[in-house]
Amino acid sequence: MYGFSVQMSCSFDEAIGKVTEALKSEGFGVLTEIDVKATLKKKIDVDRKPYTILGACNPKLANQAINADPDIGLLLPCNVLVREEDDGAVTVAFMDPSAVLGLVEQQDVREIAGQVRSKLEKVRDQLG
């Protein structure tokens, strides 16, 4: 499995705000926000439900990971997906850093991945 998720009973915009605040509480900032719905509409004229990818980063842990393996940036930041379901519920899904960073064959990186996963699970728990 490469991720874990939680469902929220609020509007999509509220979910984005709550996710961003919960990430902050665990030391993450949002580096990127990709509005997939708007991009697909603009580029290929496809209509879809709200679907946004947040690129989350914990600077201290990212720095440790970069020190352990300078190419780790290929696997950063941690993606957090916020999507509206057909029934109006909002799903927030988190990339599992242990699964992704497990590709790196360095124990230091795997330990950092475990720390990041633990923090993201706390974010998920705040939302559920």
UniProtKB/TrEMBL annotation:
Gene3D superfamilies: TT1751-like domain. Residues 34-97 form the DUF302 domain. Transmembrane segments: none annotated. It comes from the Bacteria. Pfam families: DUF302. InterPro entries: DUF302, TT1751-like_sf, UCP021774. This is Uncharacterized protein (DUF302 family).
